[in-house]
Amino acid sequence: MTITKEEVLYVANLARLNVDENDVEKLAAQIGNILSYVDTLEKADTDGVEPTTHAIDLTNALREDVVHTHPGAEETLANAPEKEDGMFVVPKVVG
User: Fold this and answer.
1) Coil, strand, or helix at residue 88?
2) CA-based angle 48:53:59, to the nearest 5?
3) Furthest CA-CA distance within the chain
4) Model confidence over 12-71: pLDDT tens digits?
5) Does residue 79 contact residue 73 with C-beta atoms inside 8 Å?
6) Mind listing the pLDDT tens digit for each residue in 22-36?
7) Which of 1, 4, 58, 88 could connect to 35 by a Cys-Cys bridge, CB 3.0–4.6 Å?
8) CA distances from 19 to 6, 30, 32, 76 (A)
9) If you write DSSP's letter for every residue of 23-87 in order, what string do you get?
10) What backbone phi and psi angles, to 5 degrees, belong to 24?
């Protein structure tokens, strides 16, 4: 499939891309090659092939979602080097 310079510039404008005039012909050839490959893929016989969402069969690798109790404020602050009014005291980092 052949792509014209005008089509490349039109798509670049839609995508808000600045394309150097020296690169337009090169991009047109590359896009044409990509579209030709897509045409080749469209010729593949896919009758009887189920649609998939992923190329390989995956299972969830995450742990089960289990509710846990969390420590209270006193227990959380027990090892804090400095605390004040139930909060951690940290050095000022914004001037």
Assistant:
1) strand
2) 110
3) 71
4) 999 999 999 999 999 999 999 999 999 998 899 989 988 888 888 777 778 888 998 999
5) no
6) 999 999 999 999 999
7) 1
8) 12, 14, 17, 56
9) GHHHHHHHHHHHHHHHHHHHTS--TTPPP-SSSS-----SPP--------HHHHHTT-SSEETTE
10) -60, -45
